[in-house]
């Protein structure tokens, strides 16, 4: 199996360019029956999720609107006073929104939580927990957990016959759009739409794509969690697959961007989350492009003043870019879902002379 070294938590920027960088081995395999991909070399002991882990996207109006859309879906489905529990609620961005509506009785769990909301407990769930809920929310958690079917089974024991909303990245979109930067060490699982619904024996109450098709969700009853996924997972249904076979355009894409900066001199990256980090990680691995990148831009103040793992690219505030941008500079937007939002802001600041592209 082909092995690749990746940063273990790309959403944990370095406090200093001299900080130790943690890397892990990735060897990918695909389950034919489930249409499911995983990292067979994943070692959870070398990933770390503490209070410094920064995975919030709530500072973006686009992502904030996505959370509002999810919340509206749940409000329309569950009556006022329903008990909503978010497992892995992070910094509490979504749960705070849910609580502010007054529609739900909210409760959350996450060991990385740093706030003081009384309805969020700074801990992981335990197998002997027994919690009453009408709807369990699991947003961008399941892709981090090895053998996800075992975790769903644990939630079924904890919450009984509660319904669950599960949201994860969409593997089909990742492959169709050549987004190799979505393959990260902290994501051990990659779900097709089929694989996600298969966790519940395909007896889901609702399934759809969201956030410009980059994400997908299902709503199901936890009581529908079946052994079908387990049987297919444990069976002889696996094929080894290499990273480069999944994303043959990787090197070409990086070289093309490098060519676009040949005469301009500077190439800025907007977005210091996973996508921006992984793109520059691979560029650095190939000894391409990073020499003409002064810094990455991010609107999240908790990331500003830190450095991306791998490439050790500095992270700065948008105001720095607005001041430093010159005619002929190239701005690479890490996530195309934010393109219009960012271009509108550039126009408002009379920075239309900056060339803009997306990865």
From TrEMBL:
Transmembrane segments: none annotated. It comes from the Bacteria. InterPro entries: MeTrfase_14, SAM-dependent_MTases_sf. Pfam families: Methyltransf_14 (PF08484), Methyltransf_23 (PF13489). Residues 259-346 form the C-methyltransferase domain. This is C-methyltransferase domain-containing protein. It comes from Phaeobacter italicus.
């Amino acid at each position: 199996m082909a092995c690749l070294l990746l940063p273990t938590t790309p959403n944990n920027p370095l406090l200093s360019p001299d900080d130790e960088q943690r890397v892990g081995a990735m060897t990918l395999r695909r389950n034919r029956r489930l249409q499911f991909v995983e990292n067979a070399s994943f070692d959870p002991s070398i990933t770390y999720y503490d209070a410094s882990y920064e995975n919030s996207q709530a500072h973006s109006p686009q992502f904030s609107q996505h959370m509002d859309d999810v919340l509206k879906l749940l409000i329309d489905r569950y009556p006022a006073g329903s008990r909503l529990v978010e497992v892995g609620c992070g910094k509490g961005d979504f749960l705070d929104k849910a609580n502010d509506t007054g529609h739900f009785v909210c409760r959350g769990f996450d060991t990385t939580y740093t706030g003081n909301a009384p309805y969020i407990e700074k801990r992981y769930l335990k197998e002997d927990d027994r919690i009453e809920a009408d709807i369990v929310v699991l947003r961008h958690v399941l892709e981090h957990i090895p053998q996800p079917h075992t975790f769903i089974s644990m939630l079924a024991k904890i919450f009984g016959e509660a319904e669950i909303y599960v949201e994860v990245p969409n593997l089909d979109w990742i492959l169709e759009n050549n987004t190799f930067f979505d393959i990260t060490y902290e994501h051990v699982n990659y779900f097709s739409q089929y694989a996600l619904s298969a966790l519940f024996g395909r007896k889901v109450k609702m399934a759809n794509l969201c956030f410009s098709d980059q994400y997908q969700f299902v709503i199901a009853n936890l009581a529908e969690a079946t052994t079908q996924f387990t049987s297919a997972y444990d069976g002889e249904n696996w094929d080894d697959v290499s990273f480069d076979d999944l994303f043959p355009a990787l090197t070409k894409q990086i070289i093309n961007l490098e060519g676009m900066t040949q005469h301009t001199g500077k190439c800025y990256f907007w977005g210091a989350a996973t996508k921006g980090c992984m793109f520059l990680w691979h560029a650095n691995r190939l000894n391409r492009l990073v020499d003409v990148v002064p810094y990455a831009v991010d609107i999240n103040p908790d990331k500003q003043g830190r450095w991306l793992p791998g490439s050790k690219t500095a992270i700065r505030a948008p105001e720095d870019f607005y001041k430093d941008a010159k005619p002929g500079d190239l701005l690479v937007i890490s996530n195309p879902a934010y393109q219009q939002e960012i271009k509108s802001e550039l126009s408002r600041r009379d920075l239309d002379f900056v060339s803009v592209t997306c990865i």
